[in-house]
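=== RUN LOG ===
request id: a7f3
mode: sequence -> structure
chains: 1
length: 156
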Amino acid sequence: MSKFKKKKSGQPAISTASLPDIVFMLLFFFMVTTVMRETDLAIESPKLPSATEVKKLEKKSLVTTIYVGKAKDAKYGKKFNSIQLNDKIATPEDIPAFIINSRLDVSEEHHPRMTTSIKADKQMNVGTLTDIRIKLRDVNALKLSLSTHKGSSIDK
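=== RESULT ===
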């Protein structure tokens, strides 16, 4: 037996030295570009009414959203006046506590500029919207925005 082995002819092995760099670059890219959903909708995605005069909200961090529409879960009923605050179905009586809790996340100087956005289905009961507005008035949340999509005046 010899101590020396014959040289193998062929291509050298692929270098994997740059593989961790590529993996971390991809990881960083996906971390930067991914948007996390803040709220899981417990109501069916609302079909927003259309409007001719639409204005975008400036500071999204000062916006509190209330969803109104048909509940997905049958235990809440299939009516169009289900209110969702954060991730749960609520009643109009829960709205003041929801607004007060959202104010705790913002400094006191920004409280007057906070906006409450209502994303309501166009089939919604108007009485529900009135109940929400009354409860918002009780906690002095007077800046209100109704979410719509841009459309012509002929849209139904």
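=== NOTES ===
Residues 50-150 form a domain with the Nucleotidyltransferase; domain 5 fold (CATH 3.30.420.270).
The chain has a mean pLDDT of 83.
=== END ===
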